[in-house]
Queue: 4 jobs
Job 1
Amino acid sequence: MISKSYFSGFCLENESELFSQYLTKNDFTVSGFSYGAIKAFEEVLNSDIRVDKLQLFSPAFFQTKDKKFKRMQLMFYKKDETAYCNNFLENIAYPSNINSKDYFTAGTYEQLDELLNYEWCEEKLQALIEKGTKIEVFLGAEDKIIESLKAKNFFIKYATVYFIKDVGHILNR
């Protein structure tokens, strides 16, 4: 049984309204943003419940980053969680003027570690397609969090990818 239809990003809650122009709301669609995209994907993959569409908004995609980058992110978080989160919230909002702090909730070191080290697996993506689930991936060309062009090139084989000009991680202007 899928516990919910929308999965929030790292350090966020109730931000689904930011994606209202793209979000499909029905009993057979599951969506997630950034870290929530990982959670939504794994939930749908490991469920026997019918899901026709999985929407991944700016999925956390760090498998192109080296171990040093990931260690540094975790070190900065551990050193000053507040400064790290403030910088993160600023970067996810870029280039929009949306106040992402309105959606802030405390995240954990373990969640950050999980999202930084998550490996999107082509076999799992293919298995989900074979279950009959259509995958949509939404990426912003101006994303300051992930390398959206590399994510686009990875997901294009398994999903309908929307690569949106002039928006960042939260897909808004």
Job 2
Amino acid sequence: MLSFDSLIIKFDKSLRTLFSEAHSIRPFPDAGLPDAALDENEKKLSAALMRVNHSGEICAQALYQGQALTARDPVVQEELQQTANEETEHLAWTSRRVHELGGHLSLLNPIWYGNSLVIGALAGLLGDKWNLGFMAETERQVGAHLQSHLEKLPEQDIKSRTVVRQMLIDETRHGDIAAQLGGAELPLPIKLAMQVSAKVMTQTAYWI
């Protein structure tokens, strides 16, 4: 049973995720790298892709906070919270890069957050093995998405590419940990539904 204090803490975390500037404990991956000269079309492309990545991290924050709310095993709760903390760093990295490129963050982030929070909480209610399985599958799909962005980003945009590469390393590790902790393989229809949901978010956030 969740305490009132826990709910207040989670609510505060939600507000800070959506409306406060995220901070990174680790150095920014692109710190010290030169900002290559990009033409306007290349800047718009990079900014749009990094905006999508930022919205993806908003979703990840909400998913893992929701999953942690309903997880039963304290070890699982701790891992989910640790993962959410690292996703906060990703928020900071992508947000700064979007603004450096002259772009804007998605206006629909509160919607992505709310939907993902509910999905995460429902996943946790199914039990820890499914909770972890959902986390592992999420990270697999995010990894594939980040890999596709490495193929789309301009070659000379070293700063954005460096950020995305480090995010990919982190997401792969998160998925491996979830599988090692006993995450169950999700049924194919669930995986496909997750892919469809992610596609809606990424295609919308690219523009809005």
Job 3
Amino acid sequence: MRLLAGLRKADRCLTQKIAARTAPGVHKTLSAVEECAETTKLWCSAAAAMAWAGGRRGRRAAAAGLAALAVAQLASNGLCKQLADRPRPPKEWIPHDEVEDRPASSSFPSGHTAAAAAFTAAVWPTWPVAGIACALPACVVAIERVQSGAHYPSDVAAGAVIGLATAWLVRHSPRLALRQLS
């Protein structure tokens, strides 16, 4: 129980600090990147650019990224949010009006972060340069989800874990399936 109480206290403290200490220019940048990531537009656009410009390697990276993103979305939004039903951070903690524009669904886990981490982690092994290029907006999305009051830091951390796990699963599932068939 002490662990959960400590986690709640850390979530509150970090959420309030991140939401309150963002400069106006940074706040606008975070919001713009998050808007691009809404409904996975950013990651689908990145996949299209990789497939168009990257040849065979770009198509493989794009396919892996989109597959991992789809599995992460199913796991985070389709399963975990239905089971957790955690309320969003209290509006009183967020000192700006962006808190009014947040979803009504469960806060746990962050589906945006799960998608961003899954896409980036799945692209990285096939095309490291593209993975590095995706890592920056993925981090920005994760920070923005806390800054906007949509998620607690623990929601974002759980979303990142789900994203990394689904990227690993997508990358290794063909080998695991072949091993089972042998």
Job 4
Amino acid sequence: MSDNRQTPIRLDDTDRKILSLLQEDATLSLDDIAARVGASKTPVWNRIRKLREAGVIRGQVALLDPDALGLDACFFVLIRTSEHDPEWARRFLAAVRARPEVIEAHRLAGDIDYILKVRVRNARAYDRFYQALISEVKIHNVTALLSMEELKATTALPLD
């Protein structure tokens, strides 16, 4: 997998306020943001532009409600592999990226090699996902954990 770490940029209090507002509601107008941070429009626009150019703001998206879309089942899939060569990793990454059900994927330290967060309609849909995944790439062990209740979910990063 790739290493996309970069040096964090320095943020002042105004940058943090702007980012907090955008994390809460990216549809706010420039006028609203400027008024809430106590600055005029042009300096706020310049800050937002610089934050985009620096890669701090990666994009703006609409957050959809999975339940409203019938994606009622959230599984955390723990994967152990006995394969650790670059070709296997490439195939695994391609398989994970090609599956829209996978909304997060992480390579881990410890006993579990990877964890996937998978959103599907139900257990039957999860089984179809599972069968497709293991047909594409050899996996030593898979454990699926069904989330019974989401206690917290946010896209907002801590800015302190």
